[in-house]
DNA sequence: GAAATTTGTATTTTAAAAGATACAGGATAG
DNA sequence: CTATCCTGTATCTTTTAAAATACAAATTTC
């Protein structure tokens, strides 16, 4: 009745749970392409369900094109035919990265309005009670595939210093700096959340899938809140990366992040 | 039959899915403590299920002590009685942080063995076919509460330069550097995954919950793989943080990570 | 080539979850 | 005080998922 992707994801129940789990493991690399999954009987035991249920979960994976089944042999993880789009962003230098990324990706505005800020946002930006904020929800696509769901909150008085059109052409921070706002620092937090019905739909995934959640709060030089960003990423299409170097003398050896392009080269 | 936490999490099916979702939202701050959840009827519509099903999910949340229901008034998010333990680690300087953290936390060894490396690991560490690796699975607890599930892979020849006892007292990198291994750089990736039966049990959470996944590969100065770490964190008990400063002249303004203690002070 | 293992298929039974519905009772807004 | 909106409770029905079971067919292993 409610088919999500094109796949035959089980509606609810254990089969669905196991489907999500296995899918997650496969896309996360736990089961490498070409390698065989544990046998159906084994899986049934591991997850404490009957073989029939495992079977239903596997059926869905086959429907997704993630695995291939060979009678008598086993179930094997398929080599993804379409290259994993896998965008990567360096966590240490996230901002400029995102900037460059903006060129290679498309954004779609899902919603735009001035609203009363959620408690979290009001607290983080230190918004006075009753004051409103501009909320914009954007979807970012690469290669016509959605990989990130962004919700930004900007205090009303700041938001009014630019138009929607401005935003389309120029990054927010440039706009603000031109207007004399002196950006001070930003604070980022990374977490993991489950896809809700709306975010799942936007990101073309399934309710209950694991998403990377990044929260960023930007302050001006006086410590006043400028922007609150809540970003959700599909882990199979986007990943946060960072390279560290071991530096210093034998007394004070420690790690130091590698910036920008160097990080890309050092990796792998 | 299979109660996970002490809560009454629905076995499978939609009620469970919605329970997980709402729980995730509450713990993630979408619904601030003290604020009311959407009405049951509204929730039923949003999630496309009947009110009874929503009700079952809410029952579980009440069982967890996450929400309080008042007849006629609504369902309200409870202020957590036990302060959120919330360990925080700075992503940029993760290593020293972890070092310091080790003092305040306990580790429990769940398994220890020499095994054939999974494909992912073999590739990342550039292990020759047939060569084995030391695999150790550890659980890290703070305040008697598990917050992280660590699996490390170290090539056999390197692992043999220290004993299990050594590891208990001294961090791996110190041990290796004393043995003449010259540590070069490390590469980290952050993602999000779902809790599987085993990781869920270890982390005292529920199958299908969202977890932060951090993968780290450490190389020596010759580029040879030294350690492959796969860490899972409970997002309600651990978070990756980072503070950035806006620096540079008007021509070349960009962001730069703030290290160590400074980051802690700047935040909030 | 025989034995063991693994997936494929089918049927039936059992259990669990979800839904529909109706009404009682508390809380709040006007 | 009343209309309205919420949760509380109960019952019954329907639908769906899961389990149990048996056997066939393909593959690998020895």
Number of alpha- plus pi-helical segments of chain A:
10
Number of domains of chain A: 2
CATH domain class of the largest domain in chain A: Alpha Beta
Fill in the CATH topology of the largest domain in chain A: Chorismate lyase
H and E order of chain A: HHHEEEHEHEEHHHEHEEEEH
Cα(first) to Cα(last) distance of chain A is: 44 Å
Overall geometry of chain A: globular
> Count the strands of chain A?
11
Low-pLDDT residue intervals, each spanning 5 or more residues of chain A = 1-10, 261-268
Largest interface: A-B, 70 and 70 residues
Q: What is the CATH architecture descriptor of the largest domain in chain A? A: 3-Layer(aba) Sandwich
Helix content of chain A: 25-40%
Structural class of chain A: alpha+beta
Strand arrangement across the biggest beta sheet of chain A: 4-5-6-9-8-7
C-alpha Rg of chain A (nearest Å): 22 Å
State the oligomer. homodimer
Q: Mean pLDDT score of chain A, rounded?
A: 80
Profile the largest sheet of chain A: 6 strands, antiparallel
CATH superfamily caption of the largest domain in chain A: Chorismate lyase-like
**Binned strand content of chain A:** 25-35%
């Amino acid at each position: 009745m409610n088919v999500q992707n094109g796949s035959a994801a089980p509606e609810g129940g254990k089969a669905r749970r196991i489907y999500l789990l296995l899918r997650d493991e496969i896309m996360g690399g736990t089961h490498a392409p070409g390698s065989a999954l544990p046998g159906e009987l084994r899986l049934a035991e591991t997850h404490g369900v009957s073989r029939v249920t495992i079977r239903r979960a596997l059926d869905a994976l086959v429907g997704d094109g993630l695995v291939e089944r060979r009678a008598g042999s086993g179930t094997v993880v398929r080599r993804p035919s379409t290259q994993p789009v896998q965008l990567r962003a360096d966590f240490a230098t996230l901002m400029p990265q995102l900037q460059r990324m903006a060129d290679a990706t498309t954004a779609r505005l899902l919603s735009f309005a001035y609203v009363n800020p959620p408690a979290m946002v009001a607290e983080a930006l230190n918004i006075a009670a009753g004051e409103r904020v501009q909320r914009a929800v954007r979807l970012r696509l690469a290669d016509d595939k959605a990989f990130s769901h962004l919700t930004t909150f900007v205090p009303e008085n700041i938001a009014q210093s630019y138009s929607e059109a401005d935003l389309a052409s120029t990054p927010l921070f440039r706009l603000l700096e031109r207007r004399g706002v002196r950006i001070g620092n930003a604070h980022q937090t990374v977490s993991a959340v489950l896809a809700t019905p709306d975010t799942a739909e936007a990101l073309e995934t399934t309710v209950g899938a694991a998403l990377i959640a990044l929260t960023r709060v930007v302050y001006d030089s006086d410590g006043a809140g400028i922007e609150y960003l809540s970003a959700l990423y599909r882990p199979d299409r986007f990943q946060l990366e960072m390279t560290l170097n071991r530096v210093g003398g034998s007394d004070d050896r420690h790690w130091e992040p590698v910036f920008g392009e160097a990080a890309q080269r050092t990796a792998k």
